[in-house]
Amino acid sequence: MIKNKIIKNLQTTLKKLGVEGVDVDLQPPTNLDFGDYSTSIALKLTKVLKKNPLEIAEMIKKELSKSELIDQIDIIKPGFINFRISKKYLIKKAISIYKNEFGFPEYFLGKNKKVMVEFAHPNTHKLFHIGHFRNISTGESIVRILEAVGNKVIRANYQGDVGLHIAKCLYGINSSSFDIKKLNSLKEKIEFIGKMYTAGTKAYEEDPEAKEEILKINKMIYDNDPEIMPLWSETKKWSLEYFNEVYKRVYSYFDRLFLENEVTKRGLEISKELLEKGILEKSEGAIVFNGKKYGLDTRVFINSLGFPTYEGKEMGLAEIEFKEFGELDKIIHIVTPEQTSFFKVTFKVEELINEKKYKGKQFHLIYEWVKLKEGKMSSREGNIIEANWLIDQIKEKILKNFKCDQETAEILAVAAAKYSFLKNSTKTIIHFDIDESVAVDGNSAPYLIYTYVRCQSILNKENNNLDYPQIGEKTISDDELRLIRKIYQFNTIVLKAAQDYSPNFIATYLYELASQYNLFYQKNPILKAENNKKELRLLITHATAKTIKKGLELLGIKTVEKM
RNA sequence: GCCCUUAUAGCUUAAUGGAUAGAGUACCUGUCUUCGGAACAGGUGGUGGGGGUUCGAUUCCCUCUAAGGGCACCA
Hints:
Helices cover 53% and strands 11% of the residues. The protein contains 21 helices and 13 strands.
């Protein structure tokens, strides 16, 4: 990469000037008109060299060895040194991208180059809501980005199929007189268990007898009591089928679906062993981890009824996760921030079990809530927004406002929804508003896809086997150059997105690229341009289209060819 | 009570300690008998209050205010 070459060159130069052991930063500047790469090293050396930054920058510039790859080095205001990559090289890169050779830099999360991303995790017997939708969109994108920079990624999903929420739902079913055999479609079944869950929750809160009964059902599920198992299995099957349909609809799949029930027994065993080892201790009838010694919370692993809690089960889960897929470098858990304390504790306990195996390998990637403008979603309030419902709404809006077929509307609707989550940082709470949040214009997926389609439409009017051997850099205009440089930035953006687990870097970049292209399109004829210009502009159109398509793919968003 | 997180334009939001704080939306004004108008341009408007560190702070530290979350048998 050019970047590394420039850094090396700078380091050598600094040595000549008698400066060593300083980090050389080199980043694309905020404003591309300043150059392709920029360093603030001169500003940082003012104290060491006791000179003003502009002088230092001049000294560095003088000493830098010349390179064919660099057209120009500028020194600007406070003391930035800006580098401009040669036009010839930029054109070469644009041609590579046109040929689908992106050449993403490699960035491995460890020596085995193998990571697991654990995401989505809905609970059975409940709806897959827009919070899960944000999670699965984020996870899917993180997976694709990490793969793009060279990692082997295992997609995992830990689904809750035991616990009080299920007991509530089953109680609801048992106390209603409805015969579940009368339910035909999956949709009916999911609606039914949703209602039963709400009824169960209400009973739990209002009726002490019902509460007792629900706790009893909860125990029965843990005990695999044959009286409840058939209903539990049947309803759980419905949920899992429903989840699979959602996964398909949003283009996700999993290499491994973990279920809570599957790790319960082993989690209990491990927790008991930990008690013997002295890592966990008895307290008020429960088995807990006393986190005080480590500045952490105290949390329960086995409750006083003898059942493993979420913490206890996590021990069983971690063991399987690290066993089934060979040696992993990292497991990334994409989970909301309320579980920070939980993860800090379980990661610590795992470290105490086996430092070599677990230390530094578990990572809680916090993604924030999707809140409704009116407040938090809750089944009690009956204001859960289901992912499917949201997609349907957007689809309807698209079909109403634009001429397009069902299939295209579906793709655009999924795209618009996913993009509305991914354009924000994972750490931002999204305040969701049905009318405003999912845009189909402005900074939105349909806008990006529209730009792609526009490019395709132009390209389809031309011979598709262009080779671009003749393009010279001499006649290139500022507008053209600016676009080619923007396209060149793509690799750096993808790398940064991988390093920071930030899909929004890619979203923002794509929007900037698309706007820049649309402006260019507005100002410059492409097909009607004179011959030597036409080729270059077609190349720019090609490279823009490929970049948008690839970038959206990394976000888990499909493109269409016509809309 | 203790701990953690957050605060950017009317609203929704972006920004590895860097350059003029970047967008969308809303509102106002324009471009165009197009290569696909789901387009393009211009305008109005912003870092919660107060200190500090730094050549430089939305970013780091302290404090105040406000909001969210967590702190033992839910997941």
